[in-house]
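Posting this for the archive.
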Amino acid sequence: MSTASRPTVGTAPGTIEHLSANIRGGATMELDPTEMQAVVKRLKRAQGQIGGILKMIDEGRECQDIVTQLAAVSKALDRAGFAVIALGLRQCITDPDAGSMDVESMEKLFLSLA
């Protein structure tokens, strides 16, 4: 198994720590967990919205109401992704020697949200 595809020790797949430790192509950037708390809060709010959407579907709510809530969740997830990219960019600017993330890798991450 190559280093780029080997999971980082101590991180569970799908967690923020795993995602921040294993960015495409093996480039790494550890994001400050304290700064990530705002992202976590936003994601938990989106998680609650998704639960609400599921309940709306179970209750047979109107299509327009459901789609409106889906759009809100989608926007919340996009904003969480952009916040992660912004934190990474800020970190690259303030401490360029901290990780091996290059501009091209950051650009690919940013564009993957589009």
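Helices lie at 16-21, 37-58, 63-94, 103-112. DSSP finds four helices and no strands in the chain.
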